[in-house]
Write a structure and sequence with these properties.
The chain has 79 residues and is mainly alpha-helical. 78% of the residues lie in helices and 0% in strands.
């Protein structure tokens, strides 16, 4: 899940992207943008890059264990 710090940094990036002539986003607009982004990201069921990398490592480790067990079963079947 995307944490609130990342959403806050995204809102700040959007605020900085607004041309200087228009000015800064008012605080209530920033809060509305945060709430909207949180809602959209939650519906998308996103995960952070760190969580993705961690799950990838777990999957790799599990796959290696399964392969080792398959070889052990095959060796036992041949006996």
């Amino acid at each position: 899940m995307i944490n609130s710090e990342k959403i806050t940094s995204l809102v700040e990036a959007v605020s900085k992207a607004i041309p200087d002539g228009i000015g800064q986003l008012p605080e209530n607009a920033q809060n509305n943008l945060k709430a909207m982004l949180s809602s959209v990201f939650e519906k998308m069921d996103l995960v952070s890059r760190e969580e993705f990398d961690l799950q990838t490592q777990v999957l790799l480790k599990t796959r290696l264990k399964v392969e080792a067990l398959e070889k052990a079963v095959e060796a036992l079947e041949q006996k």
